[in-house]
Amino acid sequence: MSADEITVASKRCSTCKETKAVSAFGRDSTKKDGLRSECKECAREYNRVYRAANSEKLREAKRVYYAANSEKAREAKRVYRAANPEKVREASRVYRAANPEKGRVRNQRRRARKANLPNTLTTAEWQYAIDYFHGYCAVCDRPLKDLFVTHTASADHWIPLSKGGGTTADNIVPLCSGEDGCNNSKHNAMPEVWLALKFGKRKARAILQRINAYFELVKAKDKEVA
Fold first, then answer.
1. 92-148 tens-digit pLDDT
2. Which residues are paired to 12 by β-bridges?
3. Distance CA 93, CA 88 (A)
4. Mean pLDDT, residues 162-166 taken together
5. Would residue 37 count as lying in a domain?
6. Cβ–Cβ contacts within 10 Å for residue 58, how many?
7. What is the tens place of the pLDDT at every residue in 2-46?
8. Rounded to an integer, what distance in angstroms lies between the CA atom of residue 165 and that of residue 148?
9. Residue 10 lies in a domain
10. In a shared domain, residues 134 and 64
């Protein structure tokens, strides 16, 4: 029997026990009827459960494979991207929409790399910053995401990249971005100067103390891990 030959019109799935059309099964030339014993839906569910239960094991296997076959893996990725540009763009768009926080961290780390500055910030550290300030702007206490989405969270380099500040947990704070947003007005200004101009010296000192206290906490956490 050739690999393309199917000998039945329908089949009973060995997992869900339902009788389904041939199109519901994957092909398997080693089987007498040319089809896999379980339907595609059951196979997908099995794979989903297996990946969830063995995520660490799979990640390690993937890491080992890429380490041993880095050139081969890069070439395969390059070929796939070249052959499927629309699929790649759509997958990237869907991922960015589903993971906005990871996108922000990735963009900020890329900016730091270009400037040859530290870029160790992780998604977990960024989420910790948002949680620490309870989902509000670290400077003005405005909600980072309001009802009408006029403001969003921006990962701000407290010491700007242009002034030597890296993309690290002890230099990134969540600021509001949007209409009259703090991130929009801060730009590349040093925090002390910008705060004094925006809020006055007295309030600026209070905000600086609050944010510096957060940075000290982050540094202490890093020392504990080390």
1. 777 666 666 666 666 666 665 666 677 888 989 999 999 999 999 999 999 988 766
2. 19
3. 9
4. 88
5. no
6. 13
7. 445 667 788 999 999 999 999 999 999 888 888 999 999 999 999
8. 32
9. no
10. no
Residue 205 CB-density burial (10 A; 0-12 exposed, 13-18 middle, 19+ buried): middle
Domain that holds residue 218: 121-225
Q: Is residue 114 a part of any domain in this protein? A: no
The Cβ-side half-sphere exposure at 138, using a 13 Å CA radius, reads: 29
pLDDT of 50 above 80:
yes
Six-digit token string for 181? 């947003």
